[in-house]
Design brief:
The complex is a heterodimer of chains A (145) and B (169). Chain A is an all-alpha fold and 145 residues long. Helices cover 70% and strands 0% of the residues of chain A. The longest helix of chain A is centred in the last third of the chain and has 24 residues, at 103-126. With 169 residues, chain B is mostly helical. Chain B has helices spanning 3-25, 28-44, 55-72, 74-89, 91-100, 102-112, 115-126, 131-138, 142-168. The chains are: A mainly alpha (145), B mainly alpha (169). The A-B interface holds A 13-17, 20, 23-24, 41-42, 44-45, 47-49, 51-53, 55-57, 59, 61-63, 65-66 and B 3, 6, 14-15, 17-19, 22, 32, 35-36, 39-40, 43-44, 102-107, 124-130, 145-147, 149-150, 153-154, 156-157, 160-161, 164.
Chain lengths: 145, 169
């Protein structure tokens, strides 16, 4: 009776009309040692399925919270910025002449510069003669053209 | 969602994903990488995960698509090449030992099946999913599933018989 049942189930199995429960019955039947000789050929099939289901995934999955990483970087950046602001001191105003030299020194320097400027101007005044020279050369040039 | 919570959700079907990936990609390393990739993808979507009514089915579909994409991509060319190289290199000893073991024949026979039959057989006979679940996972009509399953089972039976007869003769 049992065997007849199994034969029927096998037939149904290959037509893909068995239910999961019926397939489980077949698996169980073939996992036992007392398989009818004429059905033995099917045993590897069902035993393979049972065996295949036992394979496990053993690799570790690195679940790094990546998004948090970026968030904390920005937090750190802001912290560094705040610390920077806290210790920040405005640069001192530029040093003036009055800080480094006494008024007398400045006065004498001014005098010296004025003297230099005056003599320099004298020199430039002399150069006005060159203007006259230019005028006469231009006259020649226009004539030649 | 915390990592432990996530792992608790994922743990029951993690091995199923791996077995599915291995069925399609054949190589254990490739399957491990694929599974890892899928789990990381799921982890990155963990906030949305509560809105999925069936995380397992969702993950399974993801795995299926990922592996099929992988097989289609150029890398798959390398993969196949590497794999045949691998089997060639170790054929002498390992395959001889395996050949005696008719259970491992089934694995090899299954590797030769078309992808769709492979997946149906894997989901039904190894993972024991109901037809309704397979319909959703593979996006197939019920009749198509039954036809593919019946064909796959019969092919495996025929090839197994062939090998069995060779063994006797």
């Amino acid at each position: 009776m049992e065997l007849h049942n199994i034969e029927k189930l096998i037939e149904k199995y290959f037509e893909a009309t068995t239910t999961v429960a019926e397939e489980e019955k077949l698996r169980k039947y073939f996992s036992e040692d007392e398989v009818a000789p004429h059905l033995e050929q099917h045993a590897p099939l069902f035993n393979y399925f049972t065996k295949a289901k036992e394979e496990r995934f053993t690799k570790q999955v690195p679940l790094k919270p990546r998004r948090n990483y970026l968030k904390w970087v920005s937090v750190a950046a802001i912290a560094v910025f705040m610390v920077g602001l806290y210790f920040y001191q405005p640069t001192p105003p530029p040093v003036t002449l009055a800080d480094e030299y006494t008024p007398e020194e400045i006065e004498s320097a001014k005098e010296a510069l004025a003297l230099l400027a005056m003599n320099f101007n004298k020199g430039t005044e002399q150069l006005y003669y060159l203007d006259e020279f230019e005028k006469t050369t231009n006259k020649f040039l226009t004539k030649n053209n | 969602m915390k990592q432990t919570e996530f792992l608790n959700i994922v743990l029951p079907f993690r091995d199923k994903l791996f077995r599915m990936a291995k069925r399609l990609l054949v190589s254990t390393e490739e399957a491990e990488d694929a599974t890892q990739e899928i789990l990381i993808k799921l982890w990155s979507k963990k906030n949305k995960m509560e809105s999925y009514n069936n995380v397992e089915a969702f993950a399974m579909t993801m795995t299926k698509n990922f592996c099929l994409d992988r097989l289609k991509s150029k890398q798959a060319g390398n993969l196949k090449l590497v794999h045949t190289n691998y089997t060639d290199a170790s054929s002498s000893l390992q395959s001889e030992l395996e050949a005696k073991d008719s259970i491992s024949w089934v694995e090899r026979i299954m590797a030769e099946l078309p992808e769709q039959q492979k997946m149906v057989l894997q989901l039904r006979d190894v993972e024991q999913y109901e037809y309704e679940e397979i319909e959703k996972l593979l996006d197939m009509k019920p009749t198509a599933i039954r036809v593919a399953l019946s064909r796959a089972r019969k092919t495996v039976r025929e090839k197994l018989m062939e090998k069995h007869n060779y063994g006797i003769a």
